[in-house]
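Example 3.2
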Amino acid sequence: MPGRHRCRRVGCQPSFTSFGPATAGSSEPEETILTVDEFEALRLKDLEGLGQNECAAMMEISQPTFHRLVISARRKVAGALTHGRTIKIEGGHYRL
C-alpha cells in the first residue's frame, strides 16, 4: 500500500535534539530535519555496530525499510556537515 507508514520502534528519545555550527553573527544556519526513526537507525547501525537485519528486527521493520532509513539519515547528516547546517531531530513514524 503506497504511502503507508508503520510505526518504527525506537529505544529512547534522543538526549539532544539540535546540533549545529557555532554562529558568528546574527544569521542562523539553515536546518536539516533528522527524524527520530532516522536517528535510531544511525545509532543502531553506526554507533552500536549492529547488522542491518538485527537493526531492522529491533525497530520492528523490514530490512529494506531499515536500509532506506539509514541511507536517508546518512545523506542528511553528510549534507548538514558539508554545508554548515543545523541538524534538528524531530518527528517521524515511531513509538518508544
